[in-house]
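Input/output pair, single chain:
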Amino acid sequence: MNYSDDGVVTICSTVAVIAGFLYSKGRFLGFKRGQRNQHEHTALIQLENVSSKEETNYYLGKRIAYLYRAPTAKNGSKFRCIWGRVTRPHGNSGVVRAKFRHNLPPRAMGSAVRVMMYPSNI
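Output:
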């Protein structure tokens, strides 16, 4: 790890964590699918600033949070979260597969997810 004066920590050649942030951004693209069948238990996530299969190795095993706003409050908050984990790369362009505790809803396609910087495998 390299530390700089402006608060940026460089973990590897493609991953830089700004001090104070515990997550990087990602986008839920859709579900794993073949030509005819769709498998809702595996989500495809495009990671921000990741564009190759080699760069995804850092994120394998990391936790993912999908945050959404519900109409009714529970425990004093209208925000809810579905947790998941990065399982493996998908293709050669920085997309990863992820499994969530509950399958993501279809209306979440195209929305943002948070890829947490833990657990660490360095």
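The chain is about 0% helix and 55% strand. The longest strand covers residues 77-90.
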